[in-house]
Amino acid sequence: MATKAVHVSDVPNLDHVPENAASLSLYATRRPTGVDVSKNGKSFPKFTVIGHRGHGMNILQSTDRRMKAFKENSILSFNNAAKHPIDYIEFDVQVTKDDVAIIFHDNFILSQEHGTVFEKRATDLTINEFFSYGPQREAGKEGKSLVRKVNGKIVGWDVESDDHLCTLQEAFQKVNPCIGFNIELKFDDNVVYEQDHLIHVLQVIMKVVSENAKDRPIIFSSFQPDAALLMKKLQHRYPVYFLTNGGNEVYDDVRRNSLEEAKKLALEGRLDGIVSEVKAIFRNPSVVREIKGSNLSLLTYGKLNNFSETVHVQQLMGVDGVIVDLVEEITRAIGETKTRKGSDDEKREKTDEEDGRGIELSFLLNLISQVIQH
């Protein structure tokens, strides 16, 4: 699949897409009807909470039962997340060998039989092969076991409330329509993709979205720089964000190695914003002002977002929203913060509040910086 990197000027516009994208122009010409994240598409009207893989990702080796409450990326997880005051759910979309958009995070799907582990790339499966894993739709039918590799060890994918694997179309049909979808365009970090392949995958996904989204808010995001650039070129209705870990890991593609590179890519590709690993902005708090000053929206993800204190700091810093695993706890904490703030506003003058906010933010940033270093 190796090929050259995609440059913004090289991306085919809507008038030059392949013939098999017959309905693609429809995505560009339809006007949004209640799906914009804001008036200008660059920021959110309020601090936004997004449920990671629904009600939270599964950490199978964790002793915390909350990390294994619901099967991640499942209809069950999505609808349980929707019971809380969140704005979006985030999930990972890939495309099967027979062109079905599925929701699954890992590049490879693993099963175990009689002590032998079988591993297949998710995108090499047909939809029926994909559905053959895990809990089955038909009563009394048993699917292939699902396991994961954690730190080199095979761990059973055991959760308290299990559910069958699902497609993107099923999510649109079965998940509370009031909840927005943050659709991560999932690709393997270790594969360099042909431009034509990326376009084809994005067309398959966009077709499902166009036919099913209606007025549901949609955000696209991707760690794959070329996929993000292409999705922005191929449609104009929904915001597209570039995902980055902000330099916590180093990749051959330099566009992925820092928040500065992420900002550069987003501006050159006219993307709507950046989703950064939260530690990157705590290491360099001034970057928040730089990104927001460039008319880009900023969201964060990462384990630190499961602590209400770090979420509160990000609110003070001007971050637009957070992707979290502990949906119930974080939404409750944000609600309590709003209640306290409303009460405080009645008791003190605005100037005193601003001084207090500055002192509070400085103290908390210093504290978090020390925690990260240790």
Distance between the termini: 41 Å
* Helical amount: 25-40%
- What low-confidence regions span 5 or more consecutive residues with pLDDT below 50? 2-41
On the 0-100 scale, what is the average pLDDT? 87
Give the strand content. 15-25%
Biggest sheet strand line-up: 1-2-9-10-11-12-13-14
The beta-strand count equals 14
Q: Could you say which structural class the secondary elements and strand pairing correspond to? A: alpha/beta
Overall outline: globular
Encode the helix/strand succession as letters.
HEHEEEEHEEEHEHEHEHEHHEHEHH
The total count of helices amounts to 12
Describe this structure in words.
This protein has helices at residues 24-29, 75-81, 127-131, 168-174, 195-212, 225-234, 259-268, 278-283, 286-293, 308-317, 327-347, 350-373; strands at 48-52, 88-95, 101-103, 108-113, 116-121, 147-150, 153-156, 166-167, 180-185, 218-222, 240-244, 273-277, 297-301, 321-324. 35% of the residues lie in helices and 18% in strands. An 8-stranded parallel beta barrel has the order 1-2-9-10-11-12-13-14, surrounded by 6 helices. Strands 4-5 form a two-stranded antiparallel ribbon. β2 and β3 form a beta hairpin. The chain is globular and about 55 Å long. The chain contains 12 helices and 14 strands. The model is unreliable at 2-41 (pLDDT under 50). By secondary structure, it is α/β, with parallel strands linked by helices. The longest helix is centred in the last third of the chain and has 24 residues, at 350-373.
